[in-house]
Amino acid sequence: MALYDRDYVKNNSVAREEVEVQTRQGDLSTFIKATYQLFAATMISGAAGAYVGIGIADVIAANYLWIAIPWMLFGMFGLMMVKDKTPLNYIVLFAFTFVGGIILAPLLSRVLGMSGGGALVANAFITTSVIFGSLSIYAMNSKSDFSSWGKPLMIALVIVIVSMLLNAFVFHSPMLHVFMLGGIVLLMSGFVLYDTQNIIKGAYGTPIEGAFALYLNFFNMFSAILQIFGIFGSDD
Q1: Residues 195, 76, 46, CA angle at the centre, nearest 5°?
Q2: Contact status, residue 53 vs residue 85, Cβ threshold 8 Å
Q3: pLDDT for 162-187, tens place per residue?
Q4: Could you say which DSSP state residue 149 is in?
Q5: Phi, psi at 208, each rounded to 5°
Q6: Is residue 132 predicted with pLDDT exceeding 60?
Q7: Is the pLDDT of residue 22 over 50?
Q8: Residue 153: which residues within 8 A CB-CB, separation 6 or more?
Q9: d(CA 199, CA 50)
Q10: Cα separation of 189 and 98, whole Å?
Q11: Does residue 10 lie in a domain region?
């Protein structure tokens, strides 16, 4: 008789592996749920900021760079510095998204002032939501790996930003501006695929990082689409 039952040991090892896999899957499921709950909360925070900002849209527009540049720098560095420090990380996240809504106020105010402006804003939001949701579902179910898209997307983002700055201060071409807005929509679509897949694979350290990435994707996509709708919906 053998000193021990090898099948018993093997079966126990398999069982332990199955439990570990189930535990990891459970943890990842909890992580994904927390990320998308936070993302939904950031959308509400951003909407609240836009509501507040509409009443002072002229003031925001007159001081736009003094608000937008610190906001971008704060988002790039501030949140990442406190991402593991609860509750400060949540305070910083919602402060950032609230101010993001305020920054959108001049654009929203301008479009709302057009004929049928309310419908333009609503259609831009619906269009953004449909594109964003469709891409998210595709990323979750696709067998394609988008994890290698990070570097090319960042390079493309830099190119688009530089091009928009050149157009704003040098070329002043309305047509080029429209093309750049279309480029932002395509670029953010790529980021949605990339970030969504990173979230479902557990590539982010905290739900806050994933929610922050999704918020920026939606924010930039909505801003670009709203500008396009505003341009083509204008009577001028």
Answers
A1: 75
A2: no
A3: 999 999 999 999 999 999 999 999 99
A4: G
A5: -60, -40
A6: yes
A7: no
A8: 187, 190, 191, 194
A9: 27
A10: 23
A11: yes
- In this prediction the pTM is 0.88
- Domain contains 157: yes
Domain that residue 183 falls in: 6-233
In a domain? residue 127:
yes
Binning pLDDT at 50, 70 and 90, where does residue 73 land? confident
Residue 1 lies in a domain: no
Which pLDDT belongs to residue 42? Answer: 97
Cβ atoms of 102 and 49 within 8 Å: the answer is yes
pLDDT, one tens digit per residue, over 218-227 is 999 999 999 9
Q: How far apart are CA 103 and CA 81, in angstroms?
A: 23
Task: Tell the burial category of 135 from Cβ atoms under 10 Å away from its Cβ (0-12, 13-18, 19+).
Answer: buried
- Start-to-end C-alpha separation, the chain: 93
Alpha-carbon distance of 184 to 200, in angstroms, equals 24
- The Cα–Cα gap between 230 and 120 comes to 7
Question: In terms of residues, how long is the chain?
Answer: 236
What pLDDT digit, counting tens, does each position of 23-37 carry?
A: 566 788 999 999 999
The total domain count for the chain is: 1
What distance in Å separates the CA atoms of residue 57 and residue 95, rounded to the nearest whole number?
A: 18
Pair of tokens at residue 68: 């937008």
